[in-house]
Every structure is written in C-alpha cells, then in structure tokens.
Amino acid sequence: MATTTRQTSLLVQEDWTKIYQTFREADFQSFDFETIRKSMIEYLRTYYPEDFNDFTESSEYVALIDLIAFLGQSLAFRTDLNARENFLDTAERRDSILKLARLVSYNPKRNIPASGFLKFESIQTSETVFDGLGNNLSNTLVTWNDNTNENWLEQFTAILNATLVDQQSIGKPGGSKDINGIATSEYTVKLANSIIPTQSYTASVAGIATPFEVVSATTADKEFVYENSPNPNGLFNILYRNDNQGNGSNDTGYFFYFKQGELKKLDFSIADSLPNRTVSVNFNNINNTDIWLSKLLSSGVVDTEWTQVPAVNAVNVIFNETSERDLYSVATRADDQIDLVFGDGAFAEIPQGRFRLFYRISNGLTYQITPNEMQEVTFSVNYVSKRGRQETLTIVASLEYTVTNATARESANDIRLKAPQQYYTQNRMITGEDYQVAPLAISQEIIKVKSVNRTSS
Q1: DSSP labels for 139-154?
Q2: Is the separation of the CB atoms in 438 and 432 below 8 Å?
Q3: Spatial separation of the C-alpha atoms in residues 262 and 288, rounded to whole Å
Q4: Lowest-confidence segment of 3-7, 56-60, 398-402 by average pLDDT
Q5: In 104-253, where does DSSP find H-type helix?
Q6: Closest Cα to residue 281, out of 341, 239, 327?
Q7: 255-291 as b/e, with b when 16 or more CB fall inside 10 Å?
Q8: pLDDT digits over 36-71, tens only?
Q9: Using CA atoms, how far apart are residues 412 and 97, in angstroms rounded to an integer?
C-alpha cells in the first residue's frame, strides 16, 4: 500500500492532520464521571455532528458513554492513588510510607513498651533457712523495713542469699554501677537451666487488664538498665538499688525490672546460603526494643547470639565500628511486623542452619502507669538451692513511681519529617544542599570559593 493511501485510510479514511487536530482539542483533564461524560458528548457534537446525533438520555449510545465515563473515572482514581503512594509527602498507606523511608535508610520506630521497677515489699521461701539467732525462716514472711521486727534486714539477706548462684552473696554482686546517681547492683537467682528468665503477671491499667513480665536485668557495658537475653540459661537477675536516703526510701531496696508485653519464641531454619536474605516475622505489635536472635546447635542448645545493627550494608557496618560478623538488622513493616535482614558475606555472615528468635509483643499504646495500679503483685520463683533441690521464693512487690515511658509507633507525619533528615544525622554530604550547609555548620570561619574554568567560559 502506498504511503499516501495508507495515511488517508487511517481511522475511517481520515487524514492524519485531522486526527492530530481532534486530539489537540480533546479535554484530557477530565477525571470524574460527570466531567468525562460531558467532555465526550461535547467532543462528539463538535467533531462528529453528522455521524452521531442521538444524544437522548434513553439511547443505547449514551449508555455506552456513561459506561466509558465510569471506567475512566475508576482508572483515573487508581492512577492518582498509585502516583500518590510513590512519594513520601503524599503517600497515605503506612506500608508505602515505610518502604519509601527505607529508601533513604530510615527505619521507623515501632512501639516502645512501658518499663520500670517493682520494689520488693516482702519475701518468703520454702527452703529451710536459719537467721543469726537460729530461727527457721522456712515459710516465714519477712517484710522490708519492718519496724516490728528488728532482725528483718538479716532475715531478708539470709533468704536472698539462699537463692543466689554460688559465686554471689549479698554484698558481693555480679556487677554494680551508678545509674542516675543511684548505686545499682545485680544479683543472680539460680533457676533450672530449661527455664526462660521471665515471670508473667497482669495489672489493670486505666481499667484494662494488661499483660506484663518481670525480666532478668543487667547494666553490663551500658549506662542504663536493660534486659538480658531471655535464653533459658538458668540465670535471673534482680537489682539492689541504694540512694543513700535510708531503707524507707522508694529508691532503696531490691527490685524487679518489668516490661509490658508477652515474650514469644520463633524457631526457623535456613537451608541455603544466599546473600541479603530476608526472613519475615508476620506478627503484629512487635515492639522496638525486645528482639534477640541466636543460632542453635543440632541439639537445640544456643550456639551463638547474633548482634542487631541498624543496617547490614557495608557503609553502616563500618560506621557502627563493630568487628563482629554475626550481624543482622530489623526492618519495620506495617502493623509493627518485622523483617530480619542479613548480610551478603562481605561485612556480615550469611546465615545458615537453625535459629531461634525471641521477640516481645506489646500493646502499642501511649499511656502511663500510676503506683496504685500495680500494688502487691505476687511472684513465685522456683529456684535451685545450694543443696541442688528445687525451692520456691515468693515475692510481693509494688510500683513506687509513675511510669510514663510507653510510646506508640511513629506516626506517618513523624516519618515524613524524620526520614529526609537521615543523611544529615550521619554527617555525610549527599545533596547539593548538604555541601552548601554542612561545612558552615562545623565552623563559620570556612570560606566558600567558586572556581571558574576561564578557557571554557
């Protein structure tokens, strides 16, 4: 077919110039049903007045126009929605916001659980323990700072000494540190090796029954109290704190460290050695602080504990100044689910074998706990005595201060604000704005010089 014939035969033998003219006059900014319908009818009346002239509402042709207008509106809506979800400033779906934030190496925070200290009010043991006067303290309730019992401190000490590991005794702690001006020592209660070192209880917070756990606390290598790895190693730490204000002070005595939520366990296996592997943990409301990953031997015993870092790519691992290679990072997903992200073998080991993940599910709310909402909570701790027998230590503990550190997950607006600032927080110059601002932020004496290539100019 000749070129001229082919051009004049396109679209019912219309010339290409006419096609171009009709498309140029078409209204492509119509997105809703009424505007699309109106634009189509006006277009047909203008350019096809002789071919289509039946525009009564009951005609089949108008029904087809209505159908096309409906489909056009649906497609326009979905196109706009998808386009909005591709930009951090306009995205509405939390899953989209989290993925966009990850593009700039920002990992939004999940919920942070309430945590604090429960002070021992009284203790009692099933073991036969004698005080300095030869009194048998078995099943005897001993109250802290009891004005009616002049031997209460000696008896309190005798009972606790019976529960501790062989290397420790009251006055000879496993570790001590000054935390916020309060001398803090940690003592280790000896449990059976198969027991995870937590104790669950329920308290009514704002009229709602809320699950909590007392956990094994430590200050090792940190300037704050944190939870030990919950592997079943038979060790459970309690704290002794002394603010030098006397035994009647709220900050002097023995304490449990508690957290809101429920500890969960997930075992999984990785058969193939693949770089940059991701393992999804599809449970809601996993909090931001309580995640532990360990590699297991074939017998199921913990072999090594892996270290969590902000990111496992090369730059961030070097930035973290860690020499370990058993590394992983945690990526936040919608509904506070997580992904475990592993390395590529260059700066972090590629995982292979059996693994165990401990994580804590919390309620994900912002709230406070007043002392009257957590009073006289009773715990029964089964410990192994010096004679190798299993005994029971009963502890009654109460909250002395209001706890206000529970925080809900980061909102979408918080993520939009903080994610673009991620590069600034790492003291790196990435964008043109960085090069303009960052040097002057270090020193105002820096002189900015502009060079011009005169030969080319």
Answers
A1: T--EETT-TT-TTHHH
A2: no
A3: 13
A4: 3-7
A5: 152-163
A6: 341
A7: bbbbbbbbbeeeeeebeeeeeebebebeeebbbbbbb
A8: 888 888 888 887 887 777 777 778 888 888 898 899
A9: 7
198 and 237 Cβ atoms separated by less than 8 Å: no
Least confident of 43-57, 72-86, 147-161, 214-228: 43-57
Residue at 102: amino acid letter: R
Closest residue by Cα to residue 336 from 95, 77, 119, 86: 95
- Both tokens of 382, joined, read 């089964």
Across the range 128-152, mean pLDDT stands at 95
CA distance linking residue 196 with residue 235, whole number of Å: 9
β-partners of residue 171 are none
Domain-wise residue ranges, the chain: 3-84, 115-261+362-399, 264-360
Structure tokens at 457: 């100019």
Q: Which of 88, 106, 105 is nearest to 97 (CA)?
A: 88
Comparing C-alpha atoms, which of 367, 346, 302 is closest to residue 112? 367
CB atoms within 10 A of CB 217: 23
Across-strand partners of 328?
308, 342
Tokens encoding 333: 């997903």
Phi, psi of 202 (to 5 degrees): -125, 135
**pTM reported for the whole predicted model:** 0.79
- Residue 138: count of CB within 10 angstroms of its CB: 14
Crossing angle, helix 3-13 and helix 16-25, to 10 degrees?
40
**3-state SS, residue 413:** helix
- Distance, first Cα to last Cα, the chain: 54
